Each structure stands twice: as C-alpha cells, then as structure tokens.
Amino acid sequence: xxxxxxxxxxxxxxxxxxxxxxxxxxxxxxxxxxxxxxxxxxxxxxxxxxxxxxxxxxxxxxxxxxxxxxxxxxxxxxxxxxxxxxxxxxxxxxxxxxxxxxxxxxxxxxxxxxxxxxxxxxxxxxxxxxxxxxxxxxxxxxxxxxxxxxxxxxxxxxxxxxxxxxxxxxxxxxxxxxxxxxxxxxxxxxxxxxxxxxxxxxxxxxxxxxxxxxxxxxxxxxxxxxxxxxxxxxxxxxxxxxxxxxxxxxxxxxxxxxxxxxxxxxxxxxxxxxxxxxxxxxxxxxxxxxxxxxxxxxxxxxxxxxxxxxxxxxxxxxxxxxxxxxxxxxxxxxxxxxxxxxxxxxxxxxxxxxxxxxx
Length: 359
What we know:
Elements: H1 3-25, H2 34-39, H3 41-53, H4 68-83, H5 89-95, E1 116-122, H6 128-134, H7 140-148, E2 151-159, E3 164-171, H8 182-186, E4 191-196, E5 214-218, E6 224-236, E7 242-248, E8 257-265, E9 272-275, H9 280-283, E10 289-291, E11 298-302, E12 307-314, E13 319-320, E14 329-331, E15 338-346, E16 351-358
Antiparallel strand pairs: 1-3, 1-4, 2-3, 5-6, 6-7, 7-8, 8-9, 10-11, 11-14, 12-13, 12-15, 15-16
C-alpha cells in the first residue's frame, strides 16, 4: 500500500470529522432512537457512502473507513422520521406496514458493496498456491492489506481457459468503503484487476418484505395495471428530502413501475412532514415519462409539449452542466454511473422531476 495517500487521507479525515461534528452533531435535540441504531445502522452507512461516492472530490472518497460523523446525521434523521413527532399515520406506515430499507443493489447502479471484493492473478504466479493454502502470500503489500482490513479468503476459482485465479475476499469489519481499496490491490505486481464483489443474499435487490402492495398505474386508452412491489429503497435528494421508493412489476428484468413517498425533517428534528409528491407543480405534469431507464446513452422524454427548460441533478442536488440540442432525446453518455434527476419545465412553468439511472 502507498503510505502517503493514506496518511493524507487520515489527516483529511480528522478535519472532516471536526467539520461534521460542528455541522451536524451540536444540536442535542437530534438523537438516535435505539430501534434505528439496532436495525438501520447499515442503511445509514450506505446512505453516507452514497453521498461520499457521488463526488470524486469528497474528502472521504478514498477513505476505506466511513467516519461516524458522516453516518450519525443519517441515523438522527431516520430516528426523527421513526419517532414521528406529528403522529402521522403515513409516516408510521414507512417502518411498520411497508418496512422500507435502503437497497444497496437495485436502484443504485454503482452498487454499494461494503463487505467483499475479488481480484485475479495469473495462476502460475509463485505465491498463488501458498495464498490458497494459508491466506498468506509472502508479498508484503498484499499481506498488509489482508491484515489491515481484516480480509480473509472466502473462496477462490481457477479459470483454466485464461490461466488466471480469482480470489474472493471478505472483510471482518461490519462496513468498509470497498471501492477505496481497489487501487491498492491493483498496484500490487501480478494482480490483473480487482473489483467489488456482490455478495448480497438477493443480488437482484428484491428486498421488499412489507405488506403485499401493488402500484396501480393507468393504461391507455383506458383502464389500469397493477404491479406487485418486490423492491424498496430509501434515498436522499439534494434538498435533504428523504424519498421512500417502491418498485413493482417484473423486477427480474427491470421493474416497470415505481412509487415514492417524501419526508422532510427540520434542523432540530422536531418537525417531520410527509408528502406523496415533491411539489404541487409536479402534480400538474403527471403525464411526463422518460425512457429507457436505466440508460447508457440517451433519454427520451414523452408526455409533454413545449419544453422550456431541462436540468439534470445528482442525487445530492448538484446541477450537472449538460448541453441539450434536442429536448426530446437527451445525451447523458458523459455522466458517471449513478442516480440522477431530470427536471423538466414546460412553457407554463409547470415542473416534473423524474429519477433516472445512468449505467
């Protein structure tokens, strides 16, 4: 491992932790409910890691350990929602009937792996057999990584056709920013490549365990279609609004329907408001849809005429500068993989906001 970047990262971590303490933790009114601490700790860490990974300039982007100061605000805000100070039945349903959870797989294309990674090496490399047998390679850089991040070999596989061996590693820590380790593995001689490895019990992200529920959508020219929910997720948009998402339909091939509930939280955590829409303006443009979603290159917009303006935002609310030469077909090929929001405005200044995934 290169010691200088990690040393610098630790210095930055100290400054970031102090900053986050003063920004988020000085307000004693925002507390962490025992239920949330016990059941949503990993969910909060995934939300914090999504925030970190959404910005390559984030001070913790290359830090394998997600600071508690980045996690606690999410635990506090989830606790405020769970405590439900306004006694809203809709908010009660989020944790009771619907049992919403953060989904590390489905809606976040750059899936949030926090336990495992895999690397490949030529099978003929001298230390491969010893590493298989003992978990120790004799290569200082590799063995230091294994020790520092409590990594063990969960399995390995020899690819005879390519003459390479893949080692699947799992950390003993509850949560690591696995992607921050990839470059440390790839600079080790003879390692061909390394990448996060999806070890979730349900790799398709079919994580919904709440009450049976169907999303009902209109079908033209008339009638409706019911889509049984199989996937849920919790995201946070750029305005600090918590979005509780349900996805339904054939989620093995891509869910055909989605539905969201929105919750805003005051700075002192004493006021929590629930809504089924982001804004009153969006209700007026319910006909707007975008496809394909997920997408790799282009987005098509339909259900709207006289488009006045288009804007793209990251999941953290940062406006992405994209040139639109064709408002019906939008080139998003330059975007990094992740979740974005397309804001569409028509000539009457009515607005629709649609979430899309860039692969």
